[in-house]
Design goal:
With 143 residues, this protein is an alpha+beta fold. The protein is built from five helices and six strands; from the N terminus they run βαβαβββααβα. It has a six-stranded mixed beta sheet. The radius of gyration is 14 Å and the shape is globular. The protein binds a DNA duplex (12 and 12 nucleotides) through loops.
Length: 143
DNA sequence: GCCAACGTTGGC
DNA sequence: GCCAACGTTGGC
């Protein structure tokens, strides 16, 4: 059973283009237990949306821009000196044909329940299958 | 640049 | 163990 997720990154720090160029890259720097617990629950082959947070219009604004796949499950984050938090590895799968903006998600009643809308500070969150399919459709790609 | 939400820290 | 102060995230 594949599960679905959403992970945020500030494009000024790490953008979708950076990830697509790199291929596989560790997802480090999460310092929130709720987000870390979500990463802990990820299995190999799970999919996640790559979301640009805090993005200026130069980067296309706040939007879901791509899809990644879990290639390595939760392990201690080498960038965390306290040893409390972990990381996973993501492989870039594909870019959305058209990015799905936060404003679009907020204006879609079927997506109003997403943590992306309700809990703006959470950086890694689960996405239910129906929402995954709908966002893929809005983004112009197959689920 | 501002500020709401919310997590963390430290005094008691 | 409570809670005020403070720091950070991220939308606007």
């Amino acid at each position: 059973m594949t599960a679905y997720w959403l992970a945020k990154s500030e494009p000024e720090t790490w953008s979708w283009d950076d990830h697509a160029k790199k291929g596989v890259e560790p997802w480090t720097g999460v310092r929130n237990h709720q987000a870390a617990n979500n990463m802990k629950a990820m299995k190999k082959g799970d999919r996640a949306f790559f979301y640009h947070s805090n993005a200026s219009s130069a980067h296309g604004g706040r939007a879901i821009v791509g899809i990644v796949e879990v290639t390595k499950t939760y392990y201690p984050d080498p960038t965390d000196k306290t040893g409390r938090f972990g990381a996973v590895d993501f492989r870039a799968v594909r870019a959305l044909k058209s990015p799905v903006a936060l404003t679009t998600i907020k204006s879609e009643p079927r997506l109003a329940h997403l943590a992306l809308v309700r809990q703006s500070r959470l950086s890694v969150m689960p996405i239910d299958e129906k929402s995954w399919a709908l966002i893929c459709k809005l983004g112009g790609v197959a689920p």
